[in-house]
Structure formats: C-alpha cells, structure tokens
C-alpha cells in the first residue's frame, strides 16, 4: 500500500470567485453553477454534457489558473496512472490537493475515485520504481481493476442512497475499482451485493463476469462479500462506475445539490 501526501489543509476555505449574494460561501440558488471537469485525460465530454443537461455550466480544466472560478470539480474516468502523471506535469496536483483540503466539492468517477482516495492498495509503479500517487481527500483504501480487466466490464442496477426517486441506478463498470476499507467519516452510498445482482450482465463486446458475480470474489474461492462502489465524505463524492455514459443524471444532480449546500 502507499499513502498520498495528505491535502495540506493550509489553504483558505473554498469560496468561488463571483458570489456577491452568497455570504455563506454557497452559490446563490439562482446563479448558474460553474463545474470544472479535469481534462488531462478520460471521458471529459460525457461529464460536461451531463452537467449542462442539468442546467449547469461545465468547463474543461487543464491549467491551475482555471481552477479559481469553479464551484465544483469532476475528475472523470480514464486511467489513474496517466491522470496522476499529467496532473503533476501540468502543475495541477498541488493546487488540487489544496482545493480539496479547503472544501471544494469534487466528484470522482472510476479513475476519479482512485484519484480521490487517500490510499491505493495496488498502485502502479513507474520505471523509476515510484508508485502512482493520488490526490487524496477520501479516508479510504481503493483497489484498482478490482472487478477485472476490460473484457470483464459489466453493467448492473444498484440501489444508491440519497438520489431523487426510488429506481435503481444503471451502473457501468469498466476496469473498475472497489473500495476496500472506509474511515469513520466516509458514508457508503452504494454496494454491489455479495454474489452480484440478478440484473448484472456483460457489456457489449466483453465477456463480463460470471453472471453478476464480481470476479475478484469468486476467483479467490472465498465467500462472496458486498463491495463498496459509491461513497461520500463531506464535499467529496466518488463512484466506481460511470453514470455519465448511461444517461443516468441523478448522481450529477446529487453533486449539484452538494455544491449548493442542499444535500
Ligand atoms: N474506467 C476507469 O476509469 C478505469 C480506471 C482504471 N482501471 C485506473 O486504474 O485508473
């Protein structure tokens, strides 16, 4: 296991730039939110489209100067090793740690969840022997590719705490992590139940896991256990899966309510 440097905690509390009518530091309900999507790598466009379909403004973020005006940030799915490398090369890693530490609302999906985790159980190691780093913020241990590789990608329906309505979330898992351990302040919002879910099936073009059963559990020959796939702690939200590619908008809607201080 490896630990990320903790968010410095020295930054001033997060407060978006243009908030004359919001003395609490929250965007006024009538103001259009500006949500950044970290755009060094990954499925940026899908998140931008989802936020815009909910009436928010979404902008790709590649430079530290672009962070100042944001009400919230999304770290997309993609490849966490590449994202780690590029955020450091672009000088984004430290400003992002500071913003996370100061309370900026951040939502990470899949690779984004890995970036927000304090500890990566199985970090990739580069040619110099350096383990990949996360930004951290969520007091938890995450395991990369835990449900299997690309050909074992799958989709399923999940119960998800705190969303509008009672219908389950259609969740797509692509080389997805699971959360192995959470600290006291981390709330579990969704799990893949022990033994999988009856509705689980392989994604088109993949073999998928054996009918709805997370492969990591059965391959180990142990009793299947439920696997944590969505969490929240304060202003940080993370999912192992990709709501942005199924037309499921309620996770982003929850994130917008978090930004507005309504959830
Ligand atoms: N769909 C994804 O974001 C996959 C995450 C990838 N396995 C990683 O380690 O970053």
UniProtKB/TrEMBL annotation:
Keyword S-adenosyl-L-methionine among record annotations: no
Keywords: Glutamine amidotransferase, Hydrolase, Lyase, Pyridoxal phosphate
Substrates-to-products reaction catalysed: aldehydo-D-ribose 5-phosphate + D-glyceraldehyde 3-phosphate + L-glutamine = pyridoxal 5'-phosphate + L-glutamate + phosphate + 3 H2O + H(+); L-glutamine + H2O = L-glutamate + NH4(+)
Binding site for L-glutamine: 78-80, 144, 174-175
Single GO MF annotation: glutaminase activity
EC number: 4.3.3.6, 3.5.1.2
One Gene Ontology term, aspect cellular component: cytosol
Low complexity composition bias: residue spans: 205-219
Database matches in PROSITE patterns: GATASE_TYPE_1, PDXT_SNO_1, PDXT_SNO_2
Pathway: Cofactor biosynthesis; pyridoxal 5'-phosphate biosynthesis
Record-level GO BP terms: L-glutamine catabolic process; pyridoxal phosphate biosynthetic process; pyridoxine metabolic process
UniProt-annotated stretches for the region Disordered: 1-28, 196-221
Catalytic site: 110 (nucleophile), 242 (charge relay system), 244 (charge relay system)
UniProt record similarity statement: Belongs to the glutaminase PdxT/SNO family.
Function: Catalyzes the hydrolysis of glutamine to glutamate and ammonia as part of the biosynthesis of pyridoxal 5'-phosphate. The resulting ammonia molecule is channeled to the active site of PdxS.
Subunit architecture: In the presence of PdxS, forms a dodecamer of heterodimers. Only shows activity in the heterodimer.
Classification via PANTHER family: PYRIDOXAL 5'-PHOSPHATE SYNTHASE SUBUNIT SNO (PTHR31559), PYRIDOXAL 5'-PHOSPHATE SYNTHASE SUBUNIT SNO1-RELATED (PTHR31559:SF0)
Protein name in the entry: Pyridoxal 5'-phosphate synthase subunit PdxT
Organism this protein belongs to: Arthrobacter echini
């Amino acid at each position: 296991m490896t630990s990320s440097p903790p968010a410095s905690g020295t930054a001033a509390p997060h407060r978006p730039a243009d908030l004359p009518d919001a003395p609490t530091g929250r965007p006024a309900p009538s103001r259009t939110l500006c949500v950044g999507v970290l755009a060094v790598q990954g499925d940026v466009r899908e998140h931008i489209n989802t936020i815009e379909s909910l009436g928010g403004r979404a902008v790709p973020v590649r430079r530290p100067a672009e962070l100042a005006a944001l009400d919230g940030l999304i770290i997309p799915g993609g490849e966490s090793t590449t994202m780690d490398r590029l955020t450091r090369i672009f000088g984004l890693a430290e400003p992002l740690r500071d913003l996370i530490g100061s309370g900026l609302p951040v939502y990470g999906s899949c690779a984004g969840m890995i970036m927000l985790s304090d500890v990566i159980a199985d970090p990739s190691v580069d040619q110099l022997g350096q383990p990949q780093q996360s930004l951290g913020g969520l007091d938890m241990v995450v395991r990369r590719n835990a449900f299997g590789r690309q050909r074992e990608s799958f989709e399923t329906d999940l119960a998800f705490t705190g969303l509008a309505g009672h219908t389950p979330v259609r969740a797509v898992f692509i080389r997805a992590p699971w959360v192995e351990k959470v600290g006291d302040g981390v709330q579990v919002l969704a799990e893949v139940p022990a033994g999988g879910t009856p509705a689980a099936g392989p994604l088109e073009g993949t073999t998928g896991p054996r009918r709805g059963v997370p492969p990591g559990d059965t391959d180990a020959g142990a009793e299947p256990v439920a696997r944590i796939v969505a969490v929240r702690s304060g202003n940080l939200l993370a999912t192992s899966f990709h709501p942005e590619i199924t037309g499921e908008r309620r996770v982003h809607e929850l994130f917008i309510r978090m930004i507005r201080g309504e959830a």
